[in-house]
Amino acid sequence: MTDRPIGPAGPAGATKTREAPDKTPGGRPTGGKAVLSFLRELPVLIVLAFALAILLKTLVVQAFFIPSGSMEPVLKPGDRVLVNKVLYEPERGHVIVFSDPQDGRGPDRGVIGGFLHWLSEGIGIARPEHEDFIKRVIGLPGESLEIRNTIVYIDGRPLQEPYLRREARVSMSDFGPVQIPRDSLFVMGDNRGHSNDSRGSLGFIPVDKVIGRAFVVIWPPSRAGGVH
Fold this sequence. Notes:
With about 230 residues, the chain is α+β, with helices and mostly antiparallel strands. Helix content is about 20%, strand content about 25%. It has helices at about 30-60, 110-120, 165-170, and strands at about 60-65, 80-85, 95-100, 130-140, 145-150, 150-155, 155-160, 175-180, 185-190, 205, 210-220, 225.
């Protein structure tokens, strides 16, 4: 008598083998099918990541590049800062980013064209339509401001400015007095002798032009830290 294989036999007496299961006991795909499932989902994940990044940039926080030395020594050319845009209300001494108050409206691109331009700005393909500036808030809405003998006076009282270097202070020329409109701010760079600000062509900055407050330097690593 010959030995017989245990279990049902197929044609020609061959034994039947079981195929590997497509799913784990929990119902998840295994092996190659898991990889294929991930690849099918990858485009959706990429789109969601882009959408989340653009949403964060638009509503929460945004990175800005410092192009000039007008805010030295606090910020230097080439620094990159993060700007808080959430429910921000300007206060004296804050370093803020704002849109050019002299810029008018951009070209009318229509609904679809406007959305595509906004999207391309968000992912860094297109340049922003208007130039942005970074300065320090010195005068608040409704206040009187004057610079006299290298000292800034707010409503007749001298302003303490510990963030200024001595050479920046002595480079200030007399200015004013001026009355700041109720809907605007007076801003200046910390490098007072090398800053185009509210004393010059920028003039008063409407509050609705403020993008947010710079709160941390993220690049270069050697200068990473809070913006005071």
